[in-house]
Design goal:
This protein has 156 residues and is mostly helical. It has a domain of 109 residues. It contains eight helices and no strands. Helix 2 crosses helix 7 and helix 6 packs across helix 7. The protein is globular, with a radius of gyration of 18 Å. The protein starts with a helix and ends in a 24-residue tail after the last helix.
């Protein structure tokens, strides 16, 4: 274990390990230093790479706040899609990386955003299959108990 992704990058760059699982922008910094990026973990396994999570109590008791948070997230993603140059500059400034690394990181981030905010059933099942390797889960577990798409833009 090397800690978080920054620690993993440091141990990789210092030669303490031969490979590491890195998240953006550290994966692109590693490429700049001569390492090879093999694939994104989400391309290897059917797992969610990001998501917005809230407790049932939060959704029930503060539905308006949750809806505003979701709307703000969708507005931010729309801005990111429409403003590549500014977004890449912000990434470069925040993480102290080169413009080339920032553009690659932008592309990676963009690939993690889906259009409608929904978790696909295939990815949800893949994640549950991984969880089943660690703990017992009922075979007939209803995924709908854990997701609520009713507050997404365009939901009925």
């Amino acid at each position: 274990m090397t800690g978080g992704t920054a620690g993993s990058f440091t141990t990789l760059a210092s030669g303490q390990v031969a490979g590491a699982v890195l998240t953006p922008p550290f994966d692109d910094k590693a490429v700049t230093q001569g390492f090879k990026k093999f694939m994104l973990l989400g391309d290897l396994l059917d797992i969610p790479t990001s998501g917005l999570v809230a407790s049932r109590a939060e959704v029930t008791n503060h539905r308006d706040r949750v809806q505003k948070t979701i709307a703000a997230l969708f507005d931010a993603i729309a801005w990111i899609r429409a403003n590549r140059v500014d977004t890449a500059k912000m990434i470069a400034d925040k993480f102290k990386i080169t413009p080339t690394e920032a553009n690659s990181t932008y592309e990676t981030f963009l690939g993690t955003f889906n259009k409608d905010g929904r978790l696909s059933p295939k990815v949800a099942r893949g994640y549950l299959n991984i969880l089943r390797q660690e703990r017992p889960l009922p075979a007939d577990l209803d995924l709908q108990r854990f997701v609520d798409f009713s507050m997404l833009p365009g939901a009925r």
